[in-house]
């Protein structure tokens, strides 16, 4: 992980993507205007467009280059072929091979994942909470990259961004059952809890499992290793602060 301060804002970047010269970023909660609770999608454009404009100015691109999905904790994946002026509804992962389009996701405990294919010049941005994780959205994104752009999983470079760490991410029996049903290594991913029927779920490990099972090389997957719940001065956390809190944006673009 590398940190870059732009004005009052701090941005985080992955070392592996930086070494390849890939334009990408994850925002923090530091330095935002208005009420400080940055949001990049929502019911009303006037509530989130000022934050998009603020983000675009900070990273040196136009607001029109930023593309966000309206996330629903599902597994719909959209290939973006041209700039769009509004949100892409009902979607949790974006893929593009078009230059100058910055595809993004927003999170506040869920896992943001960036993927880059240096051979085919394709990028993806994935939002994966527990629902997206058990529905294997990142594996489906990799498969879609293979189908649409002839990507080979062993070529892919990826980063798992700031999100909730398993030591504070206790889940109920409904989630435990789905993890057991969808992961052969569920014993590694579910840590014991003192509360009956509950466990602590390792979202980072689960998504890394999905990527390696899809054919990605383990050494090509960088986990930023920062917990959104624990680092309260740096990140928003829906579990800690409530659903009305702000969001971090994580984006990637072919320049």
Topology at a glance:
Elements: E1 2-6, E2 9-13, H1 15-19, E3 23-27, H2 45-59, E4 66-67, E5 77-79, E6 93-96, E7 102-107, E8 111-117, E9 122-128, H3 130-134, H4 137-149, E10 157-160, E11 170-171, H5 173-182, H6 186-189, E12 190-192, E13 199-201, H7 203-213, E14 221-223, H8 238-241, E15 248-253
Parallel strand pairs: 4-7, 5-6, 10-14
Antiparallel strand pairs: 1-2, 2-3, 3-15, 6-9, 7-15, 8-9, 8-10, 11-13, 12-13
The gist of it:
With 255 residues, this protein is α+β, with helices and mostly antiparallel strands.
- Percent of residues in helices comes to 25-40%
Largest sheet properties: 6 strands, mixed
Number of helices: 8
Rounded to the nearest angstrom, the distance between the terminal CA atoms is 21 Å
Order of helices and strands: EEHEHEEEEEEHHEEHHEEHEHE
What portion of residues belong to β-strands?
25-35%
Radius of gyration: 17 Å
Oligomer: single chain
Number of strands: 15
Give the overall shape. globular
Structural class: alpha+beta
Strand order of the biggest β-sheet? 1-2-3-15-7-4
The residue ranges in which pLDDT falls below 50 over 5 or more consecutive positions are none
The pLDDT mean sits at: 96
Description:
- The chain is α+β, with helices and mostly antiparallel strands.
- It is 26% helix and 25% strand.
- It contains 8 helices and 15 strands.
- The strands form 3 sheets. Strands 1-2-3-15-7-4 form a 6-stranded mixed beta sheet. A 6-stranded mixed beta sheet has the order 5-6-9-8-10-14. Strands 11-13-12 form a 3-stranded antiparallel beta sheet.
- Strand 1 and strand 2 form a beta hairpin.
- It is globular, with a radius of gyration of 17 Å.
């Amino acid at each position: 992980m590398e940190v870059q301060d732009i004005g009052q804002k701090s941005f985080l970047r992955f070392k592996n993507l930086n070494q390849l010269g890939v334009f990408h970023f994850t925002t923090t909660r530091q330095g935002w205007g208005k009420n400080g609770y940055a949001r990049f999608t929502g019911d009303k454009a006037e509530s989130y467009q000022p934050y998009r404009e603020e983000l675009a100015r900070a990273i040196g691109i136009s607001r029109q280059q930023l593309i966000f999905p309206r996330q629903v904790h599902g597994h719909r994946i959209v290939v973006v072929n041209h700039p769009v002026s509004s949100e892409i509804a009902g979607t949790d992962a974006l893929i593009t091979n078009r230059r100058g389009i910055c595809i993004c996701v927003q999170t506040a405990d869920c896992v943001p994942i960036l993927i880059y294919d240096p051979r085919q010049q394709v990028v993806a941005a994935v939002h994966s909470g527990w629902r997206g994780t058990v529905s294997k959205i990142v594996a489906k994104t990799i498969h879609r990259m293979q189908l649409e752009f002839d990507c080979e999983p062993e070529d892919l470079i990826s980063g798992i961004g700031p999100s909730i760490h398993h030591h504070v991410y206790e889940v109920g029996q409904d989630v435990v059952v789905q993890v057991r049903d969808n992961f052969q290594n569920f014993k590694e991913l579910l840590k014991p809890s003192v509360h009956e029927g509950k466990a602590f779920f390792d979202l980072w490990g689960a998504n890394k499992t999905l990527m390696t099972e899809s054919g990605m090389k383990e050494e090509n997957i960088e986990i930023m290793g920062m917990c959104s719940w624990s680092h309260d001065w740096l990140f928003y956390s829906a579990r800690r602060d409530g659903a009305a809190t702000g969001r971090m944006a994580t984006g990637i673009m072919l320049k």
